[in-house]
Amino acid sequence: MGYLMLIKLKRTRTHDEDRNLAMWLATAAGVLNAIALGAFGFFPSHMSGNTSQLSSEVSNVNFRDITFLATILVAFVCGAVTARMVVIGGLANGNRIIFCQILWVEGLALIALSLFELFFFSSANNREVIVILGFLMGVHNSTSTQLSNGRVRSTHITGTLTDAGISLASVLAALFRRDPSKNVSGQKRQLWTHLTTIFSFLIGGIVGLMMFKHLGFKAMAMVGAILVLVATLAMVRTLIRAKRTAA
């Protein structure tokens, strides 16, 4: 039933589905972030750091870097907006596999970007590639956030760490008070979801650096291929299940 992690159902999502989603998408985000670091020395999804660096460049009046950093921020937001608009349109038309389709297209985009870098790599194109990756990271994070109703943010580790701290504090407070009215089990499950996201991103970052070291830009194509495969399997299983239900 793991394919349900990519499907927006009428019933309430389970924490198992969110944890599966976190393992796949946060790991993929960590790998892509590490590949970008290895290739370009830059994190395409680290918007807090990019914003801080933008402030620094403004004070130094470096207009070229200011434009570049501002473009990354805009690209990330545009990716999030694009994913949201596509989801709204898909759900309005009863498209239950719209999230799978978004990840499928993202995977193809990563494969295309990887092939471009393999055949036409030039340091002159580095900034443009980083901006494209920033856009895709915005799509990626928006997709996981919408699917999980805000419980899984695959690239936003600062916020996830904050959420994990809040969940841990809620669990400890309920346990110390021994208040049976508090939903301790629910808070524990949410804490595990946040921890799964954090450690998946961390492991993805380690694996991503190793992959780029040995495979170069082929590593990016592998991530794209995995996203395409997972999304395709989820779409096929959903359609088969829908036909059986209709029959």
Automatic annotation (TrEMBL):
| Signal peptide limits | none
The transmembrane residues are 21-46, 66-87, 99-121, 157-176, 191-213, 219-240
Keywords, sorted A to Z: Membrane, Transmembrane, Transmembrane helix
Domain of life according to the entry:
Bacteria
* The keyword Membrane belongs to this UniProt entry's keyword annotation: yes
What is the protein name for this chain?
Answer: Uncharacterized membrane protein YoaK, UPF0700 family
Lineage of origin: Bacteria, Pseudomonadati, Pseudomonadota, Gammaproteobacteria, Enterobacterales
